[in-house]
Amino acid sequence: MTRKRKMTAMLLALTLATGSLAACSSGNNNPPANSGGTTNSPSENTGNSDAPDTITALLPPVSPAYQENFKQMEEEFNKLYPNLTLKIEPASWEDMTQKLDTQVNAGSPPDLAFIGSDGISKYAQMDMLMDIQDLVTPEMLADFDEAPLEYMKNGDGLYGFPAYMEVHAIGGNKQYMEEAGIDWKAVQENGWTYDEFREAIQSGVVQENGNTRYGFVFATAGVASKDYLSILVKNAGMPSPFTEDLKYAYTSNNYLDVLKAIREMIDDGSMPRELSSVDAGKRWNMFLTGQTMITGKGLAVFENSANQNNEKIKAGDGSAVADSIEVDYLVLPMPSFGDHDPVSYAVVDGYVAFRGKNEPTDEHKANVVKAAYFLASGNVAATTNSDLFAAHITESGREAAASIESNRNPDNVAAVDRMLEHAAPARPDIPVDLGAQAIKVENETIIPRLQALLADEITPEEMFEDVKKAAIAAFGEDGVVQD
Q1: N or C: which end of the chain has fewer CB within 10 A?
Q2: Is the CB of residue 383 less than 8 Å from the CB of residue 296?
Q3: Looking at the domain assignment, is residue 269 inside a domain?
Q4: What is the mean predicted confidence (pLDDT) over 6-11?
Q5: Reported pTM
């Protein structure tokens, strides 16, 4: 089965260019912060039954304040539909996938789960998703921007509603970059090559009072274990795991070039030798306490979190990150390798509908759609995306967000807009079975071997050979790039 999403990179860029993208998913993680609650406006009915029903949802901390609002979300949904109960189960980013997979394998998944659109093929192949294509109303569909909604489709089916679109970037400390003589405005406007980037992060290394300030730190442990490599390879001639003729791309020598770069940035001291143990929380702590000039993965929400921590420092608030400094956060693009064009990693996450072993009733399906739309639109979406500094992708969300103030840096907004012009296009032509096999190769070979590479237990060449062997086993000699 192939996906029939019809989208181009230009459509993606035009749709997203309304503002910065942020958030966390597909393993995306947020730094801690606090903000206000949320309410939502009524959504369209998709069923006529007034019988009591409960809709379950497994939700991670989508935005810094998101989980704080669960009780209010449940209450607002019940006010909107008095016969319905929305029961939310919280999960951390670290255990979200494990919890969901455990429930799916038991045949009793939640009705809704917040996942990345790239995970849809995995659960579609398991026949555990619920197609809502014939249950949504025209008004619901019209509320969403076309590009993000298309990402929630697979073949002829629609399996949920998108919450946001985001671009994965890196983030810089403005003061440190200027001290290192780096023209950050030029980088935001024009990007940089890997050689320029490596020179910059080397210049950002500072030894002071026996401590090291690194040029670059990227979270590579835990939930962020796959992010670093996934983002880098897009800028090395591999915008997708598959070429246009559906050959697996990560057997290309371009992939080996990236693996070599990962090691040399550690070996030359630009990044910490213990990088393999740096998780999302430690990465952010190192940035706020002045232990690194540039951090990654950098999401738009980090500017908001840095601003909030700055205010706490100024106010003498004890809840500020211990030993943190004031930081002007800059959104920066990833470097491009060789003569390859820059490609931004844009992703869509959202509320995906699941089904158990038994076919749900039509009434329950309709109620699940109501809950999914409630979470993805109106005031809930407006509050969540404003908390994330993310673009609003529904008309109802944009309307609700009109009264929400924002202190975003205009330079960062413009930088994200430029990155969206280079966003990797959607790949509707990749069959579900190939997508699922690619995920298996990633989980079983790429991620564990990357950890070994970061820990200096294997060489780039050894990892490359292991990935090639796994890819050939999965796709055959003729199904992989041989260069």
Answers
A1: C
A2: no
A3: yes
A4: 36
A5: 0.75
